[in-house]
Write a structure and sequence with these properties.
The protein has 174 residues and is an alpha+beta fold. The strands form 3 sheets. Strands 3-4-5 form a 3-stranded antiparallel sheet. The two termini are 32 Å apart. Helix 2 packs across helix 7. The chain contains 8 helices and 7 strands, in the order E-E-H-E-E-E-H-H-H-H-E-E-H-H-H.
Length: 174
């Protein structure tokens, strides 16, 4: 797609390459997960989940569960397991990294197979998805890693962090 002389596919690839280069590196000197203001990040700097020993999840994972089921499950099935209409995201997130997830959700993608064509619409202009993209990712990643078993409605471990409330207001324009 071209707009004002810019090839957006090339721009997206360049953005992802820069993002991957800035998050790459040795994880030997980094902790597995870090937390700041209730938000957990993995050693690569991508958002991740935190499930306590009692099964309670951090706010962002809980929010991701809620947002996934309000925006994504219609196509991708309950709990990210897939449907006849769209693939299972739980399986995809076993190997998909956050930058690729972000790109696919924001820009969409088309996959052509001999038997069918699958189209993921671009959701980059949907604030109900993009304002909570980290949350959706961490919920699905927890499902993919087996940290949240199927059939489980997660219980949150605490109240919404102030940072999350501020980011939500800013992103939603209120």
């Amino acid at each position: 797609m071209r707009h004002f002389g810019i090839d957006f596919n090339v721009a997206k690839l360049a953005f992802l390459a820069v993002l991957l280069m800035t998050t790459a590196g040795s994880s030997q000197d980094k902790p597995t997960k870090t937390e700041e203001d209730g938000k957990w990040m993995d050693a690569e700097g991508s958002p991740t989940y935190n499930v306590a020993a009692d099964g309670k999840v951090d706010w962002y994972t809980y929010s991701g569960f809620r947002r996934y089921h309000s925006e994504c499950h219609v196509c991708h099935g309950p709990e990210g397991e897939g449907s006849t209409y769209a693939p299972g995201l739980v399986e995809s997130l076993k190997t998909m990294k956050y930058p690729e997830f972000m790109s696919v959700v924001a820009s969409g993608r088309t996959i052509q197979r001999p038997d069918k064509t699958s189209v993921m619409p671009a959701l980059g202009d949907n604030a109900n998805v993009m304002c909570y993209l980290d949350d959706i990712f961490v919920y699905l990643k927890a499902r993919a890693d087996g940290a949240l078993p199927r059939g489980t409605r997660p219980e949150r471990s605490g109240e919404k962090p102030e940072t999350a409330a501020q980011n939500e207001k800013s992103c939603m324009g209120s």
